[in-house]
Amino acid sequence: MIRGRLLPWESFDGPQNMSVDQAMLEFASQSSSGSSVPTLRFYGWSQPTLSLGYFQGIIERGRHEPSQSLDIVRRSTGGGAIVHDRELTYSLVVPLGCLAAIIGRSSPLGAAPELYLKVHQSIIQTLRGLGSAADIYGESEVDDSESTVQAEACNLEPFLCFQRRTQWDVVLGGYKIVGSAQRRVRGSVLQHGSILMASSTGAPELPGVNDLGSQAVTVADLSGEITSRLGDRLGVQWDQGELQAEELESASLIRTRRFADPSWLTRR
Length: 268
What we know:
globular; 9-stranded mixed sheet; alpha/beta
């Protein structure tokens, strides 16, 4: 059993949330830091925020009227834009020294699809236990999102992440409710993602777990159960922990130099 670090739930603005994830990733990749354990973090957003995928042009936000008034940040991971509001967000950092044991194979450069699947299966198992019949996209439910169909008909990828579909996404009642993305550096991999709890005024077309499920689900219930089930699937025993001083210092620098820097936001 691998020992892992579970961070306390916190709520920050967009640049700080992205900076902490990046600092965790970089800290885990530095062998001199002594960080050799996976780290799991759940967090919220201090105000509704639109995050652009790394490759999205800022001009694209004009395609989505309901989110025009929201704060905006650019992620370091790809994919479509996400309205972070009534959701539970998670991040998982795994040092490469632990990755082979966790996913069951030595991993070459590139994505680790097994990590997507293990995390999403843990979320699905949790939601089913709480009365919501979630599943992996394509295994049992049909995508009936009108906006997705229209976008595909026009050969234009939807602007919002939750109107796109990949083989690892989690769906409920025909709607995508969980989406994740990975970023990998030389010594570690970051996977972070969003679990929609309810629709937002910034994206009213996207329902969440509590709009689609048979019973109300709280963020506390969801995060607690996911932690336990994910530990079982990954073979990780989570220990309560905190960010190290080096990570906090790094997050502050990353915020200033990247995620809160207008040139980062407008680079595309």
